[in-house]
Amino acid sequence: MPHLIKNYNGRILETQFKKAYATAAQVILLSKNELGVSYLAKHCADVAEDYESYEDGTTNGVEPYPNSSNCYTTLYKSLNKSSTSVNGWDKDKYTVERKDPIRTFNNKAEVSNGLGLAGAGNPWVMRQNRDGIWMQFRINEGKLYITFDVNGYKRPNQLGHDIFILYVDKKNDNITGIQQSKAYTDEELENEHFDKEYQQARAGNPCNKTSSQKANGIGCSWFAINDINPETGKAGYWKNLP
After folding, report:
1. Please, are residues 163 and 123 in contact by the beta-carbon 8 Å criterion?
2. Average model confidence (pLDDT) across the chain
3. Calculated CA dihedral for residues 99, 100, 103, 107, nearest 10 degrees
4. Starting from the edge strand earliest in sequence, which strands make up the sheet with 134-140, in order?
């Protein structure tokens, strides 16, 4: 019985994920048309040529993403247009500040706000869409990131289960998943040098059942899109959620 319940819950999350992904794709298309650009991610996330940053963390004061403000306005405006139901929807006022904690992919740790996902996404402050999906856009690290919570207020509130971080490919504006590149052991993490704590949390873009990293799940979106089990490399992501 527990196995059947697990499979059933996985199918529900998969369906909700596909719906959220389709909504995000529509937002990107609407935003491109609104702004009149050929490549939205390149327009929004290309770093200004005269921007400089220094080793001490300071910059030369130039705005790194000169088109970011207009891009944010257009993206959220397009999100509001992405659903056919308009009853009870009032422009763009539905910003949600999450109160429940976010857990890692394997539920071993709580994801620290501003640490584990630093730079890539902010699932603690999101926009609630008409269909219950929460979504957030972030321009940083030279990328246009998209974070979505496929079921909003409902649990499990775990990375790689109902919360995912993706980015928009600058070459073709396709929404692309982040993929784990290496599954670090605790010993490897201890022996590796990291300048900042969040770099250790995100090292290798973790998505596996054993990692104790506080960003475990940040690298799950590629596997979710392609329904690949990160442990085996074979089909069955949604059937094998930890």
Report:
1. yes
2. 91
3. 170
4. 95-97, 125-128, 134-140, 143-149, 163-168, 175-177
